[in-house]
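To fix ideas, we quote verbatim a fold written out as tokens:
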Amino acid sequence: MSDKIQRRKKVLSGTVVSDKMEKTCVVLVRRRFQHPLYKKTVTQSKRYKVHDENNECNIGDQVRMVECRPVSKDKTWRLLEILQKAV
């Protein structure tokens, strides 16, 4: 028996802001939280490079991505599904 604990992979959703690369898209994930001291709502954003095997993402699409093993130097996320296509 192995003592390895199986962990859940993180799933995030965001908006595609770039699709210029081959098999890669850049997704902007926004996170809102309350400041611990001042109680003001703060919006924080981060960009992730996501592996898109079939080049099916376009700018403005709402997508869901899942954590995976490193695909390249910057890519550790892969596309799970496209929630909403851009108009």
